[in-house]
Here is the input.
Amino acid sequence: MKILIFLAIAISLHTGIAMAQTEQQELAAQVTLTLDKKEYAGGEVIKIKGTAPPGRPVYIEIASEKKVQVSRLDSRRDPDTGKIPYIFYLSKDIPPLYMILMPKELEEAYKLEVAKGKDWSVSRMLTSTGADVAYITPAKAKVDRWQASIMATILGSRGDQLEPMDEKGNRRQSMPLMKARYRWPERMFAPTIEIKEDGTFTAEYKLPDNAPSGSYTVIAVVDRELKSAPATFKHDLGFAQLYFDRAGQSLNIIGPFLLAVVVCTFGVVMGAGGGFILNPLLIFIYGIPHAIVAGSVLPSVLFSQGTGIYNYSKIKFINWKLGVSIGIAMLAGGFIGPKLTEMITLEQYKFLFGWVLLILAAIMLWQTTPGYIAKSAKDQAILKEFKKRAEEAAAKKAAKSEEGGKL
Amino acid sequence: MKIQFWGQEFKANMIVGCTGGFLIAIMSSMFGFGGGPFMVPLMTVLMGLPMYVVVGSSLLAIFFNTLMASSRVVGFGNVDFLLFGFMAAGAVLGGFLGPQISKRLNPLWVKRVAVVGLTILGLMLLGVIPTPK
Here is the structure.
């Protein structure tokens, strides 16, 4: 009996002490974070203040609550096995704006990674600066993967979907996707937090002009257990600004619209359509992902093509046998192409597109040579003559059918 | 393959036509443009068809490609419908403005400007001419 009582006392005492200890720890190690406002406009500076245990580094994660789709093909040869994996990764949960602020003291480690240029890696940046504790939101993005193959790509599929990854694998694979989305370390990391000796810290972050609309969360992190309660703020769009949900950015619509009008008009004048010039400019000026640019511009050609076909068919200026025969071959090509856009990186897209434009320039240069002009003048005269005849025939037919209707 | 066009008969080499069309379709749907400026030389120069046969029929062939590719990009979730809306509006407006302007311009000079413009843009894409990040 005595032993039992003793045991009970011992247990209660022990738990009591343990509770007191954790309470004390929490008190001493509290992390707080406050923002100077609840709403910000694009281009405005967000002032962040907070406290953390003295002497500990603090990281701040800023993430938009919106989501975009990002994909990439892993085609880098594995140094151990010597094989190219050809695995296609895709996540629909990547935040369209993301930033990890880190202490100013870490600037050297940060710059070391930035100096690697194109070969920088998110995972190396996170481990070398210790910022991996603040890499919270993208780590939760669900990443799906497919075993791609040349055959599957020709058949226009993503390949066989592989088993879902565990939490760790998912976190690891979210990092190259973040790089595919943000491309440069400056857009994901900044060593700007000033930490004082007493543990208070301040930081400033300029919200980009093209930041997505909606809510954002901000959280200060010291280590895996020690973090502040999340603070939130909203980004309100300015006049004529809209959020482009697949591109993952807000744009003043006047700019892209004027660009489209000017480029398409010039495209019609030069007789080549607008896509050739529009796509690279949308990438250069607005930094919209290449798959989204190609995917959004391509269908816009349908209208002009449709009206063109309608007008030509009215005057029987289309050879259906010829058009449909080649059209079926092009149907197959159109099935494969969009898949390839997803499989290539921005660098590859730019490289190939650059050569396409140079070839097009060569074709157009050839069309300015005297021999071609003389031939083309003849062609145009015949074309006009045929068109005239065709139009007359169509008009006659219309008049006849009208008469028939009257009878 | 033999084709009839306004009472005339032409021989069309469909092996060249379909192979070329297939490759041009992959390229144009991959980068997101129409492809007319490549189809017309293919059909006139390589297939030897006269211009008046090609203008309408090439448009029909390209339309197949654009239709298929459009359904694919929608399926892949790569269409930003807002961006598409503005680009389509620009394309339609350009379709009206273009012919008005081109009447007043010398087509030869238009082509020359286009050659220079496309070359610059191509070199920018290849990284020969530096571009801001």
